[in-house]
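Supplementary Methods S3. Input chains for the assembly prediction are listed below.
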Amino acid sequence: MGMAEEILLRINGTEHRIHSDPATPLLFVLRNQLGLTGAKLGCGLEQCGACAVLMDGVSQLTCATGVGEFQGRDIVTVEGLSNGGTLSAVQQAFVDAGAAQCGYCTPGMVVAVTAMLDRAPSPTKVEITEALTPHLCRCGAHPRILEAVARLIGPGGVDD
Amino acid sequence: MTDNPSLLNNPNLDDWLIILPDGDIEARSGKVDVGQRISTALAIIVSEEMDVDLEHIQIAPPATIGFPDEGMTTGSNSIEQSGHALRRAAATARRHLIGIAVEKFGAPAECLNIKDGLIGVTGTNQTINFAELMDGGGFGIPVDPNAPLKPTEDHRWIGNAATPRHMTEFVTGAFSYVHDMALPGMLHARPIRPPHANAQLIDFDPKVTAQLTGDGIIIVRNGSFAALAGEDEYALIKAARRLAETAEWDLGDGLDTEDVFQRLRDNEHLSLPVVDGTPVDDPAPALRDPPPDAAQTLSARYERPYVMHATIGPSAGMAVCTDTGIEVWTHSQGIHSFRASAAEALGVAPDTLTVHHALGAGCYGHNGADDAAFDAVLIARAIPGRPVLLKWTREDEHAWEPYGSCMAAETRASINAAGQIIQWSQDTYSDTHRGRPRPDPGGDGPARLLGARYLSDPARAFSAKPTMTRQGGLHRNLDPYYDFPDTRLVKHLVRDLPLRTSALRCLGAHVNVFALESFIDELARAAKIDALAFRLNHLSDRRAKTVLNACAEAIGWGDVAAEGHGLGLAFARYTNSKTYAAVGVDLSVDDAAQVHLNRVVIAADAGEVIDRAGLSAQLEGGFLQAASWTLYEQVTFDESGITSRDWDTYPILRFDNVPDIETILMERPGDAPLGAGEAVGGPAAGAIANAIFNATQIRMRRMPFTPDMIRAAAAADTN
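Predicted structure tokens for the full assembly:
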């Protein structure tokens, strides 16, 4: 087992000084040391997207990448997207579209859509597919997740 | 009187509804919400019949104490059982509360009105809320199954689209799944599984165990069952891998690798005729000769390999063992039957276990939930006083969940010169779909829990008994809903197949309807009759015709398909008594033999719609899950064990093949609501196969419809 080190993390706008083996994936630090259980373990293999967070605004999987890699980065988890009781626009669109069934994959989906719209406010159909294809859902909430995205893009709709 | 088992087993109104001191209503259901939104639908029902706004209805996940025992949450029964019971309970409660108010105000019932839990005397400012009327007491009366329901024209909640419960918690990450629970003094745990199901643990490497113990990790072992517990979850994952890799295993003969489709033909099997959807304990009838007026007789065989539940969150369970008993939190769909099997396996009285439902990731069926909960119990018993949160890894889930059985369906039918089916036969071959934990006087309960099979005193392996209930396991939807004369239906429970199987959404209906609806298209083509007209020619149920026609119209049936596109239709009424569903698929198959789902129409008649959004979500989700099984999924294994152990080796449907879906719901206010959660799975498979044929002239009779399989089918057609 690797040695625990002191690691500085900036998460949801707050600096955290934690002790961990830098090789321990960030997901386990978030969930077990910081009580941020929104990001989920789905596979531990970066194949399903349930563990996504924003790293410097980009969607980043956390189940297999060591916490050491996240030093000096600006990390926002799904918990950090809402401001007090106010949901982010993406979160609100998911609620309005009923874009979850069991909800397990939802935090990763919300993060992926947030990152996509930050990068491309009017994404094409191809861009939407590319952003969401790394994310698995078994309940089949896909149509409603796409509906949430469509609501966010607005009346102009999605270009083919 | 009622034939609803939920009401028969829990007749008292206080079993179902509690008026809280603030006037909110706590509705208690024994059915678990696993993402199918049953709690949203139940809240709508209670809200409507009691005239209390939706936000004042509370529904908690059930436990084995304090909640009605409604058996398992399976078979698309929740609306018809729990929904029916809570609706009558709410109607009884409303009438009872009005009765008290009549006495209190001295005003006749006609002069009273109810608004959001407040009873008022019309034309006065006199009001009283439900909690004041109850005065801290319970109802103390039985549920009246005939209590008058609110007239449909007064419905305010039923039939509308409600915001699903817990949505805000889902999108903010605040919702707590079993996986997220944290109890004081809790230890994490991970199981250590053998390389395959037939292997036994000889011993661990003592150097490794000494090191792990030195690091504070607790090793729990009982026979070939082994697990690690400790404070640091990630350290446990690494340790478990290392311990398994360095252990000495007796691999025995490995897994049987003979082709499962051959095994389905050749293995010993128990054959029973199915009459009116129900197996009969009689010898299976032989296939008869085609009738003399048969113009054509066709036969075909349709197949599915083993498929997974493939839940996105690997199973988890929490257990703590104290002087007063064992407390368990599980995402099992059958908390009472889990408790019965676990108690039997441990040799303790069932009431020493208290089992709470807590949400896991969705999947619909018997995945690893019960096994993970039992693993947690075994570990918690070895570490009394410490709560144990056990989680499976992705590999554990893929390799050890009980799969949906491999299946084969053999059809034969004769049509006369007029293109009418005059004889129909189907034989379905499968392992059991009934592997869930359940009380079993025959002593087969413990072996229904994975961990119990590996203890030093292992649960005795059992040979599944045939499910004899109407529309039960492998014979679900074996009986066609069409008006076929001279039908011969036989279920064959096949023995000695290589992998453990249990209930997966739709049970046998996925394959039975795939076979029936594919074969109908093959027969229609042979009769040179349009596939829609051919179906309608054999249907007398008006509601069935209505969904088929609505679906066909919306998918553009009869129009010329776009270049390279194919349209496919299929229909079924789930269990021949639940939701009617017709599915239309527009797909294309590219040069690399990849299937692209372009557009899908689902037309459904689920009786009275309770939760419009939830019903559509279930139908569309059901299509996508079934499309995934049908197009992509196959459990693979060799002698050394399961080889499909992650999402690369067991791919499921992703966003790059999600079609536009249009869902049409028939409006039937006042009719009985019908279970819908599994209604689309069978028609989805049939419609996809039929659309592939119409796009390519290749008839797919074996799932999954991957490029390799499509090319193989094309090659077989030309030979």
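Chain A has a mean pLDDT of 95. The two ends of chain A are 50 Å apart (CA to CA).
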